[in-house]
């Protein structure tokens, strides 16, 4: 056998492709979208503007942004058949399963916009526009209510909150969610984005690539960490118990979600921004309970393990304060990240090369074939189903 190459488990630090979309400076704690620092975008931009940047590689003019905003607002309506599919979903279905199924179903009704290539920009905009409607529709139906009526005058973030809660957000709430969507819009070759690019590299369609991404984000090692953070806060109850609870978990070698990152060696800049928003929204709501708990946990984990917060530590508290149910936290992540997923898929179509890594084989190579009559009774391996 040839001498195998070194294995990089999880493809860590393996450079798989070139991209202009996103740069992470793990040592410097910087996140860059198409040349623009995330801090500047979060302070001055909107999600619609950031989506334009990711798709087209430049910031829009005022007229281009107005055109995109109008287009996204006009694409929020679901086809009747997809709406019927959502009506037939079990009320206790996992929202990520619903989202994945609805996106896959949409491809049947929009064949032109799913085709690989430049035309897929229409599909990118369609999916970005309609994901809040899917979430809001399913959430309403599972609570015995009729789906929300589209409100084209609302911004993307405002429509998402309206679709989920059934009430219009105030300006602070809308801006808080807008910033959260900006922060989650892309993050280079994370697992779900890589899954989307692998699918696209086969020359499959855009909706299949996004379906792959949603299925990947569903996994608890990728999405869902902010839900676990909120569960930890429930367990702690009050800041004065943070030391006791966190140290006990660390002693049992349990992972404290919301800390550490595969790429960042310092604090995730998204966590820095969301920390401020957690406090700001908490003050507006008249309760800093979540913020105080998180600061207490942050202090213990940093002192005991030297770990810094990542984006998941504070995002859940912002969502909870905005009235978003916990089981919709990861779907809201998808509502944001679909802009990045589709940007990467479009980029993959521009420079297509099938993504096909190699595995190091560790099994035998010289086994002699034994006829089935001479094999006896198997004693190893999985048992067949009864």
List the helices and strands and how they pair.
Layout (H helix, E strand, L loop, with lengths): L21 E4 L4 E4 L2 E2 H7 L2 H10 L5 H13 L5 H9 L6 H15 L1 H4 L5 H23 L13 H10 L5 H14 L6 H11 L4 H12 L7 H12 L5 H10 L17 H17 L3 H17 L5 H11 L7 H22 L36
Antiparallel strand pairs: 1-2, 2-3
Write a structural description:
There is one protein chain. With 386 residues, the chain is an all-alpha fold. The chain folds into two domains: 19-219 and 331-350, Orthogonal Bundle (Citrate Synthase, domain 1), CATH 1.10.580; 225-321, Cytochrome p450-Terp, domain 2 (Orthogonal Bundle). 56% of the residues lie in helices and 3% in strands. It is built from 17 helices and three strands. It has helices at residues 38-44, 47-56, 62-74, 80-88, 95-109, 111-114, 120-142, 156-165, 171-184, 191-201, 206-217, 225-236, 242-251, 269-285, 289-305, 311-321, 329-350; strands at 22-25, 30-33, 36-37. Strands 1-2-3 form a three-stranded antiparallel beta sheet. Strand 1 (22-25) and strand 2 (30-33) form a beta hairpin. Helix 1 (38-44) runs antiparallel to helix 9 (171-184), helix 2 runs parallel beside helix 17 (329-350) and helix 5 (95-109) packs across helix 7. The model has no long low-confidence stretch (mean pLDDT 92).
Give the CATH H-level superfamily of the largest domain: Citrate Synthase, domain 1
Secondary structure class reads mainly alpha
Question: Which CATH first-tier class of the largest domain would you pick?
Answer: Mainly Alpha
Quaternary structure of the protein: single chain
Report strand %. Answer: under 5%
Provide the residue-averaged pLDDT: 92
- Integer tally of domains: 2
Biggest sheet statistics: 3 strands, antiparallel
Quickly give the CATH architecture of the largest domain.
Orthogonal Bundle
Number of strands: 3
With helices defined by DSSP (H or I, 4 residues minimum), what is the helix count?
17
- Cα gyration radius (Å): 23 Å
Task: Write the H/E string, N to C.
Answer: EEEHHHHHHHHHHHHHHHHH
What does the overall shape look like?
Answer: globular
Low-pLDDT sequence parts: none
Q: Which topology of the largest domain does CATH recognise?
A: Citrate Synthase, domain 1
Query: Helix share of residues?
Result: 55-70%
**Largest sheet, order of strands side by side?**
1-2-3
What distance separates the N and C termini? 39 Å
């Amino acid at each position: 056998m040839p001498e195998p190459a070194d294995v990089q488990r999880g493809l860590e630090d393996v450079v798989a492709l070139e991209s202009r979309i996103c740069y992470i400076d793990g040592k410097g704690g910087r996140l860059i979208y198409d040349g623009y620092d995330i801090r500047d975008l979060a302070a001055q931009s909107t999600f619609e503007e950031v989506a334009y940047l990711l798709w087209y590689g430049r910031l829009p003019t005022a007229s281009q942004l107005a055109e995109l905003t109008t287009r996204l607002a006009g694409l929020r309506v679901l086809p009747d058949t997809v709406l019927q599919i959502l009506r037939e979903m079990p009320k206790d279905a996992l929202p990520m399963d619903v989202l994945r199924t609805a996106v896959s179903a949409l491809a049947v009704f929009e064949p032109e916009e799913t085709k690989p290539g430049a035309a897929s920009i229409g599909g990118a905009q369609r999916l970005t526009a309609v994901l809040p409607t899917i979430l809001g529709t399913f959430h309403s139906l599972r609570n015995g209510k009729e789906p929300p009526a589209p409100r084209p005058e609302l911004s993307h973030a405002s429509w998402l909150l309206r679709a989920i809660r059934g009430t219009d957000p105030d300006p602070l709430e809308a801006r808080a969610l807008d910033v959260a969507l900006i922060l989650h819009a892309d993050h280079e070759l994370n697992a779900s984005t890589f899954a989307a690019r692998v699918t696209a590299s086969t020359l499959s369609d855009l909706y299949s690539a996004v379906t792959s991404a949603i299925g990947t984000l569903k996994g608890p090692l990728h999405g869902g960490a902010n839900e676990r953070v909120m569960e930890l806060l429930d367990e702690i109850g009050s800041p004065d118990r943070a030391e006791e609870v966190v140290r006990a978990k660390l002693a049992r070698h349990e992972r404290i979600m919301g800390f550490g990152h595969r790429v960042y060696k310092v604090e995730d800049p998204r966590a820095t921004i969301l920390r401020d928003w957690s406090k700001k929204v908490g003050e507006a709501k008249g309760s800093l309970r979540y913020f105080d708990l998180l600061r207490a946990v942050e202090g213990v984990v940093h002192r005991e393990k030297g770990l810094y917060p990542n984006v998941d530590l504070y995002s859940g508290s912002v969502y909870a304060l905005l009235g978003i149910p916990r089981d919709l936290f990861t779907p809201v992540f998808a509502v944001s990240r679909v802009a990045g997923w589709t940007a990467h898929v479009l980029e993959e179509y521009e420079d297509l090369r099938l993504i096909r890594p190699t595995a190091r084989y560790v099994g035998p190579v010289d086994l002699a074939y034994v006829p089935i009559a001479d094999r006896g009774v198997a004693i190893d391996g999985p048992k067949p189903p009864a």
